[in-house]
TrEMBL record:
<dbReference type="InterPro" id="IPR011766">
    <property type="entry name" value="TPP_enzyme_TPP-bd"/>
</dbReference>
<dbReference type="GO" id="GO:0003984">
    <property type="term" value="F:acetolactate synthase activity"/>
</dbReference>
<dbReference type="GO" id="GO:0050660">
    <property type="term" value="F:flavin adenine dinucleotide binding"/>
</dbReference>
<dbReference type="Pfam" id="PF02775">
    <property type="entry name" value="TPP_enzyme_C"/>
</dbReference>
<dbReference type="InterPro" id="IPR029061">
    <property type="entry name" value="THDP-binding"/>
</dbReference>
<dbReference type="GO" id="GO:0009097">
    <property type="term" value="P:isoleucine biosynthetic process"/>
</dbReference>
<dbReference type="GO" id="GO:0005948">
    <property type="term" value="C:acetolactate synthase complex"/>
</dbReference>
<dbReference type="InterPro" id="IPR045229">
    <property type="entry name" value="TPP_enz"/>
</dbReference>
<feature type="domain" description="Thiamine pyrophosphate enzyme TPP-binding">
    <location>
        <begin position="50"/>
        <end position="87"/>
    </location>
</feature>
<dbReference type="GO" id="GO:0030976">
    <property type="term" value="F:thiamine pyrophosphate binding"/>
</dbReference>
<protein>
    <submittedName>
        <fullName>Acetolactate synthase</fullName>
    </submittedName>
</protein>
<comment type="similarity">
    <text>Belongs to the TPP enzyme family.</text>
</comment>
<dbReference type="GO" id="GO:0009099">
    <property type="term" value="P:L-valine biosynthetic process"/>
</dbReference>
Length: 87
């Protein structure tokens, strides 16, 4: 719980800043909206592909996102789980 409090304090201290564009949806905006729609309760998994800038590089293999999301649902049946995947 103290780690969550620390993260929330850091979010307030260093809010997410990004430029918006009329022609495209930025990854930062998509994550911000996803967070708002799920009241910050979503557990998000990602795969590797052209969207790897959204995830930590090199820490998972291609095809990891969906089975990771399934594992989260099995372990936490009431959780809101989102997998961001694809090329």
């Amino acid at each position: 719980e103290s780690w969550k409090n620390e993260l929330n304090a850091q979010k307030l201290k260093f809010p997410l800043g990004f430029k918006t564009c009329e022609d495209a949806i930025s990854p930062q905006y998509a994550i911000k909206v996803l967070d708002e729609l799920t009241n910050g309760e979503a557990i998000i998994s990602t795969g590797i592909g052209q969207h790897q800038m959204w995830a930590s590089a090199g820490l998972d293999a291609m095809g990891f996102g969906l089975p990771a999301a399934i594992g989260v649902v099995v372990a936490n049946p009431d959780a809101i789980v989102v997998d961001i995947d694809g090329d």
